[in-house]
Structure formats: C-alpha cells, structure tokens
Write a structure and sequence with these properties.
The structure holds two protein chains of two kinds. Chain A is an alpha+beta fold. In chain A, 56% of the residues lie in helices and 14% in strands. The radius of gyration of chain A is 30 Å and the shape is elongated. In chain A, 42% of the residues are buried. In chain B, helix 1 packs antiparallel against helix 2, helix 1 packs antiparallel against helix 4 and helix 3 packs antiparallel against helix 4. Classes of the chains: A alpha+beta, B mainly alpha. At the A-B interface, helix 10 and helix 11 of A face strand 1 and helix 4 of B.
Amino acid sequence: MNLLRLAWKNISGNSLRSWVVALCALVVAAFALFSTLLLRGAAASLELAADRLGADIIVVPEGAQTEMEGALLMGVPAHFWMPEENVAKLAAIPGVEAVTPQVYLATLIGASCCSVSEMFMIAYDPATDFTVRPWLEARLPAGLALGEVIGGDYISATEEDNGILVYGALVTLRGNLEPTGTGLDQSLFFTLETAHELARVSEIAAEEPLVIPPGQVSAVLLKTKPGLDTEALAVEIYRTVPGVYPIQSANLFQSSRTQLKSLLNTVVIIMALIWPLAILLIGMIYLMAANERRRELGVLRALGATRRFVCESLLAEASLLAFCGASVGVFIAVLAIYLFRRLIMVSLGVPFLLPSAGSLALQIGIGVLLSMLSVFLAALFPALKISRQDPAIAMRE
Amino acid sequence: MSKVLGAVMVVAALVLAIAPVFTDCQSDGKWLTTANGKQVSMKCHWTGIAEIAAAIPLAIGGLYALLGGRRKETTRLAAIVGVASGAVAILLPTFLIGTCGSATMTCNLLMRPILLSAGIVAIVASTALFFVARDQEMPVAPAAAA
C-alpha cells in the first residue's frame, strides 16, 4: 500500500478528526487570502486612482475636501460649487502650467427619467482638459461629441443603441474606461456642452430639472510646471484665492490611507491570534490521534514498516487534509471577494481593485502553502513522537 | 452524505427565496417614480420574485434527498433539477432580468452576490448529489430477493 493511499484510508477512517483539521486549514487559508487580496487590492486601487486623475493639485471649495474624496473613491455624488472666475485666478499663479474646470452632477434616485439612480457624473471642458482626454485618446481620438458619454468600468448601456437615459435625455455610451476599483468606475464622463444640453432637456423631460448654477464650477484641476514644489504652490493658492482648498495629489485619499493602515493592523492582530491557535488545535488533535492509534501504528511497524514510513504516513495524511481544506478555503475567499467586493468597498470605505490573474494565482499559491505549512508544523511533533515508539510496547498498551 | 447535500440544497433554496425580500431596493424604500408620479417596483424586485420559481424545484429535490429518498434514478433526477435551478438562479440577476443600474444600490451590493453565492452552492451540492446517488446501492425488492 503506498503512502497516499494509506493516508487517505486514515482520513476516511476518522471523519470527525479529518473535518476539524481540514476546517482549521480552511480558516487559515481563507482568512490569509481574503485579507491579502483586500489590502493589496485597496492599496493598488488608491495608487491607480491618484495616477488616473493626472492632476498635481485639485482645487475644491473650502470644506468640500471629504466630499470630493468620497466622490472619487466611492462614487458618492458630490454637490459643491465655486465661482468660475477662480479658474482664471488659478491660471495666473506662477508655476501653474495648466488648469481645467470640472462640474460634478448626479442622476435622480428612483426616477424613470434616469436609467441609473444616484450616478456620479463628471462634466469636463474639452478645450482645456488634461485629465479625461488622455484616457480617451486611444479609443476616441476625436473626443466626445454632444450627447456622447464615456463610462467607468461598471457602466453599461440600459437602452437600445448604447443609450443611457439621463434626466430624460438619451445619451450614447461610446465606451468604458479601464477599471480603477474606485468611484470612477461607476461614474459617467461627458463634456460641459453635453451637461448644459442635459440641463436644458431636463426642464421638460425629467421629474426634476438638472441645475447647473450659471458661472459656477465644482473643482479645478491643476498641472504644475516640472520640478516645482507642489506644497509651496498649494500654500500660495490657499493664500491668494479665497474660499478654496487645494488638495495635492500626493495627499489625496489620506483618510482612506489611514483607514487602510488601521485595517492592516487589525488583520495582523487577528492573523496573529488565528494562526497559532489553529496550529495548537491541530497539534492537540494529532497528539490525541497518535495516542489513540498507538496499537494500529505498532501493528504497522510489526509488519515491517519503518519509523520513517510511519512518520511520513502521518505527515502525508496531515498534508492531504491541509491541501483539501486550504483549496476550499481559497475558493471561498476568492468567491467572497469577487462577489461581495462592492459591499466591502461601501462598508469599509476603501476602494478595491481585483488583482491580475498572475498575481491572484501567486496569492492563492501562497495561501495554500501557508495553510499546509501550518498543518505540517502542527503534525510534525506527534508524528515524530509516535514513530519513535517501540512497536512491542505500543501494541501491548 | 446525500442527506447532508440535500440539507445544503434546501438551505440554498431558502436563501434564494427569502434573501431578495430583505435585500432588494424595495426593501431599502426605493421605488421607481414614473413621469405621472406613480411608484412602481424596480427590476431587482422582479428578479427576486422570479428566484422563488427557481427555489421551489431546488427545495423539492433537496427535501427528497434530505428525507432519505432511496431511489437512485429519482435522486439523480433531483440532482439534475438542482443544477438547472442553480443555473437559473445565477442567470436571473445577471442576464435574464438583471438588477438595478447603479452599482451602489442595495440590490447590487447585497442581493446579487447573495443570489450568485446561493446559486453556486446549489450547483456544487447538486453535482455532488448526482455522483453520490450514482454510487448508491439499489435496495433489493423483497419479491426479487425471494
């Protein structure tokens, strides 16, 4: 009888013990993989979102910083305004290379004139824009025309001919942007001209009209000259333009970064509790099992099995159980993170980006190996102990 | 083993039938307001109603296995029905009817992932039941034994 066959016979021989060991392996693998995927996905998403904005400084009305971050990160519609003349004031500050205004809007909740409820919408100025245009250049070199929109990764057409109903007007979805895992994925982008057209149509076609206050914008995005100290420029903006708050892109999403750090600490503490406990529990189970099976293993030795074979058979049994438990655990972790990622994002207030297939495979491998290593370590001492026992004494006891 | 799998199928069927009641947008107080001011249910609500139709055959199949049904062919049929019901449960919120458009609405955050999870569990449990039933021994009829 070969080693694996013997191990499998032992596993099916004591189903309760096997279930407990497999369950421990499952919990360790599932928790380790779930938390790794979550934390790495959130960190990657934050970096990508900051890169995607392409601006060195984002200027918002004073007091709207949190709302701005919420809109960019979670797609929670933002409603704030500042005078349009701030654009010229900001452009005149030395060290500013480019400025572009943006207007933030949202669809109505539960209204038949809007295909999608509570959708965050970003209107940009195509003449000065340097944030949305680079994303569009690859697919739509001519940019977006009147009535055309581009959506984040989650946005899909709800009407015929790639249409989406926004405030009673049918706009054409020209494509989707690459996923970022943030609120940008569930946002709609169009030109300021389209925004004003939507506002005009909404007065007759929507349950409530879309209001864009004249001479107002929501935010101004700035690009600084190369090599310039953005912090000094931010201070200068705060000093010279009243009623605004400059957010440096390096400082963007600070609250989420802090949230992520505390989440990491919690995960480390939980893992530090779960892992040794699982090893201890499995170790105790194997120690009890080894005592129970003393006679059985003694017979095996009497039939000619070497100490090494007995030890290896116990370790093979533990490894097989760990592999089965860990495989189910990583499957559950991947399924949970894939299906419930939006709920996790909203509940924890952090963005999330699914890893690439290669990175996922690597993390799954590490999760399974970690779990197998835990069970192997736990079973090592009992296996060594029982394999060293004299068969005659073991059979007599 | 088939009793355990039957219980899993029944639990999945209960989740499919009951979860939408508490996790669709209507449960969150959200309705669709038409231009004439009338409030109608959003499409996630109709997905939830349709899930009951998928849950019933799954529950019947699961109950048959749970209550110790011994006919191999019937158990296998229940397993096939379970796989089909699980597939329909997955297809309803994804392709057949769908959920609401906004990714942040309750139906997309809760109802859809719960239904997909329950559908996957139903398919896995039913597939396992099919193979377990294949290995079952047919009971020998007393007349034949004589």
